[in-house]
């Protein structure tokens, strides 16, 4: 298991941004310009899954 804490900052008028730790970039094989696909599962608790987006998910 990997666990990180990152801060949020203002990205623009209607957005917020955060840093992706270098280890996560390597693990997901992400490069600048790639997109992320987010899945939020709300059941007894909230689980967030993130993966490198496939070209059709951008």
Order of helices and strands: EEHEE
Shape: globular
Task: Give the strand order, joined by hyphens, for the main sheet.
Answer: 1-2
Structural class: mainly beta
Q: Could you give the count of β-strands?
A: 4
Radius of gyration: 13 Å
The largest sheet is: 2 strands, antiparallel
Weakly predicted, low-confidence segments: none
| Proportion of strand residues | 35-45%
Q: Helical segment tally?
A: 1
Helix share bin: 10-25%
Average pLDDT confidence is 92
Distance between the termini: 27 Å
Describe the structure in your own words.
The chain is mainly beta. Helices cover 10% and strands 40% of the residues. The protein has one helix spanning 22-27; strands at residues 8-12, 15-18, 36-42, 46-52. The strands form two sheets. It has a two-stranded antiparallel ribbon. Strands 3-4 form a two-stranded antiparallel sheet. A hairpin with a 2-residue loop joins strand 1 and strand 2 (15-18). The longest helix has 6 residues, at 22-27.
Fill in the keyword field for this structure.
4 strands; mainly beta; 40% strand; 58 residues; 10% helix
Q: What secondary-structure arrangement, pairings included, does this model have?
A:
Layout: E1 8-12, E2 15-18, H1 22-27, E3 36-42, E4 46-52
Antiparallel strand pairs: 1-2, 3-4
Short recap of the structure:
The protein is mainly β and 58 residues long.
